[in-house]
Design a protein that fits this description.
- The chain folds into 3 domains: 3-39, no CATH class; 52-118 and 291-412, Rossmann fold (3-Layer(aba) Sandwich); 171-279, no CATH class.
- Helices cover 47% and strands 10% of the residues.
- The chain contains 20 helices and 7 strands.
- It has helices at residues 3-20, 28-39, 52-59, 75-80, 95-110, 114-123, 127-137, 143-150, 171-186, 200-210, 212-215, 218-224, 237-244, 250-264, 272-279, 299-305, 316-320, 342-355, 379-382, 389-397, and strands at residues 66-70, 87-91, 309-312, 328-332, 356-366, 385-387, 406-412.
- Helix 3 (52-59) runs antiparallel to helix 20 and helix 5 crosses helix 8 (143-150).
- The longest helix has 18 residues, at 3-20.
- The protein starts with a helix and ends with a strand.
Length: 416
Amino acid sequence: MSESVRAMRRETTANLESAVHSNRALSRAGLLERLFTLAFSGLVYPQIWEDPIVDMAALEIGPDDHIVAIASGSCNVLSYLTANPASISAVDLNAAHVALGRLKLCAAQHLPDHAAFFAFFGRAASRANVAAYDQDIQPHLDSLSRAYWNARGVSGRRRIDGFSGNFYRRGLLGRFIGAGHLLARLYGCDPRAMLQADSLTAQRSLYDRHLAPVLDKGFVRWLIRQPASLYGLGIPPAQYSALSNDLPGGIAAVLRQRLERLACGFDIKTNYFAWQAFGRRYDQAPDASLPPYLQRDNFAAIRDRSDRVTYRQQSMTAFLETKPARSLDCYVLLDAQDWMTDAQLTALWTEITRTAKPGARVIFRTAADERCLPGRVPAPILNAWTYDEERSRSLGARDRSSIYGAFHLYTLATVA
């Protein structure tokens, strides 16, 4: 591993420690936080789990808008380009996510056509992708991202080789989903059967046969009561605690509710999140449901506008501290606030309010069905914003990923 890759990993760890660690190292809570940091220090999300269609409906992106967004797997960032914003600043604590986003941008700019781009990120399972990387992408990639994707593991293979054998099985989330499939098969169930459904009625029947029974098993119920078991979903200890209190039945009831909605709440032919969860891939049919950035009709726009996106490895708060007052229009926080202390939330919203133009929009999700800001962010800051509860509920109901408790939309109501 090169020194530049080691430095990227050290910076990721330092960023996570600052964001997640709030308890003594030798306490139980502190130990769980440090285990989470270790698990989260590499690639976590090969695909993001927030629905960009919902995001764009909430943000109402205009041609003069400057968006700042947490990147994660960057399906959101590239998809926002279809709405034609002026610019997007993507930030993430994790160097692997920044490298993935820059890889996607460079591929959109330099692969020959949509077919090659889709083969790389839609199928993500061919040796031809590695050859395309070497020939068309690598010469144009920034040095840090190139070092990341060329780094070799203990097997001697480069990270980029993951795109030759289903990249979506990689990362912490990919391995978590794979472990869930293995566990289901051990109990005689098969999540892949969900993909055979041709109606919502069939989806319900297959859910009752292949998914619901697994959650009733004693070992599974014990397993999901252990906070570390859900690190693969990117759920830190503080977020796990909020989830556990969201329904009377605790964490088991919450997971059952979210899994049932993913399996039965939307037509599976229109839900690429369900395909990733139950098939560990995207549908390959001509009319398949796909993230906007992978759709053929959007490829020209993604390519033409890709130079409007920049990536930074840092926290949202640190990035905003570098921006002028009243300079930003849209903020995409994903579920990052679930991780934060009151002091961190206050620092973040201080900078959001300072940098927001009149009418600016902020969107985020929470693991639990709750508003996480009132009583934690000082009233003089929060009172500058209008919370649209009715629209937030309506948009949250449309989020096909189905894994969050609530979606939230705030609009700047006054000039702070």
